[in-house]
Amino acid sequence: MKISIFGLGYVGAVSLACLARDGHQVTGVDIDRTKLDLIAAGKTPVVEEGMVDLMQQVAASGKVSVTTDAEEAMLGTDISLVCVGTPSAANGSQDQGAVLRLAGQMGRALKRKSQPHVVVFRSTLVPGTVEDVLRPIIERESGKKDGEHFHLCFQPEFLREGSSIRDYDKPPFTIVGANSDAAYTQLEQLFGHLPCKFLRTSVRAAEMMKYCCNNFHALKITFANETARLCHALGVDAFEVMDLVCQDTQLNISRAYLKPGFAFGGSCLPKDLRATAYLAKTRDVELPMLAHILASNQNHLELAFDKVVAAGSRKVGFVGLSFKTGTDDLRESPLVSLAELLIGKGYELRIYDPEVHLARLLGANKSFIEQHLPHIGQMLHAEMDTVVAGSEVIVLGSNSPAVIDALAARLKPGQQVIDLVRIPSGTALPVPVQGLCW
Ligand SMILES: NC(=O)c1ccc[n+]([C@@H]2O[C@H](COP(=O)([O-])OP(=O)(O)OC[C@H]3O[C@@H](n4cnc5c(N)ncnc54)[C@H](O)[C@@H]3O)[C@@H](O)[C@H]2O)c1
Predict the structure, then answer these.
(1) Is the pLDDT at 375 greater than 90, yes or no?
(2) Residues enclosing ligand 1, CB less than 6 A?
(3) Is 213 a catalytic residue?
(4) Are strands 150-154 and 173-178 parallel, antiparallel or unpaired?
């Protein structure tokens, strides 16, 4: 394929070298003449393992050319990869200056081009940039339409500096955010041979997932480092602890707990986070990330409260009350906290949970509910019918399929549901449903 690459920093230079190695004809474009001269001379503009030899080899193969002329590069190629920098602006926002200027140039080049062209944005871009910001610029400057005369798409880059050639050849996966088959097919030809999943998604999801990955990596590093600070203060070997943590591939290093939902609660997580924060305080160790998890959880709970308030009715029915489906444990259940907040504001509550029977509650579970919902006896109903029939807004906090089906059968026009569990996509409720943040 004839490929132009815009921006020859870490991402662009490595992509140029690897694509030329794989037999493609590659034109590198940059505004920095020094980088272009280095590449033209078979030298690498970035320090990366393997790049010295690879640049020499691909320059000698005649498969690489360089230019500062963006329009010339687009006219001479079928597909363009955009790898220009998107650094932080002073206020923390993304500085899109380079990609915005480039979009204008690309639009003007496309105006002169009669063959279709695919533009792949590989720079990290805040969600919505390709469709809401770059596409209008390119369409305006070219006088042509995305999806007809040219095809825009977004393919996040996952290489890591220091191991970028190895990462190029073995990425965790290839994600293509594309609206048109033309863009997807071209990228499949370019990257489909790599030993990983090749996934197609919306452009926005592809943009967002790149941020999500980097945020998750930062979160993991900080988790390990905060754990190490506390371990060190306590005389515990942090490497031993983290190694053990990583050996649990069922709950720790897994998909577990990574699905959006309602706030967490229960008899363990909140109390153990509090104890950890207290322990750190007694040893003068600052753990800002761990110490703010409960505050973030509270924000999630308040979001649900705001949704119920915004629903506009004071007759609220809860379907589900325990901290998770399938247990009667009410200790620190976020649904109990939500009920407390609503009762405090004078809401009329009816509650149904198939697992919760007042007479059967014992010990700490019983005393927790007596303390937090002392009048629970008047609100708790043994049958779902009375709760649903007497409520205008239903808060769904149980993800039991049987419970959701039973609810679906009882709902009547005029009612609405606030979904805290994400009702499965195949289950349709006969009334308006609002997800918590979905
Ligand atoms: N560095 C990484 O490990 C990495 C990994 C994944 C994603 N990314 C993302 O990829 C993008 C590029 O990162 P990088 O580290 O390679 O950046 P970089 O700063 O090393 O290189 C960017 C290059 O773009 C050039 N440039 C600027 N404006 C241009 C224009 N109008 N036309 C042509 N070239 C232009 C610059 O001269 C520079 O050489 C960023 O959005 C970054 O967030 C980087």
Answers:
(1) no
(2) 6-12, 29-32, 35, 83-86, 98, 101-102, 123-124, 157, 159-161
(3) no
(4) antiparallel
pTM above 0.85, yes or no: yes
Determine the Cα–Cα distance for residues 437 and 415; give it in Å rounded to an integer. 20
Pick from 127, 29, 33, 47: nearest CA to 86: 127
Class of domain 2-201: alpha beta
Q: Do domains 2-201 and 296-435 have the same CATH topology?
A: yes
Identity (one letter) of the amino acid at 274?
Answer: R
Residue 379: band (very low, low, confident or very high) from pLDDT cuts 50, 70, 90? very high
Query: Which atom of ligand 1 is nearest to 161's Cα?
Result: 3
Superfamily, domain 296-435: NAD(P)-binding Rossmann-like Domain (3.40.50.720)
Query: How far does the centroid of ligand 1 lie from the alpha carbon of residue 107, in Å?
Result: 20
Distance 74 CA to ligand 1 centre (A): 18
Residue whose CB lies within 8 A of the most ligand 1 atoms, among 4, 6, 8, 10, for a mutation test: 10
Task: Give pLDDT tens digits for 32-71.
Answer: 999 999 999 999 999 999 999 999 999 999 999 999 999 9
315-319 β-sheet, strand order: 348-352, 315-319, 393-396, 416-419, 433-435
Q: How far is the CA of 157 from the centre of ligand 1 (A)?
A: 11
In the chain, where the domains are located: 2-201, 296-435
Residue 19 has pLDDT above 90, yes or no: yes
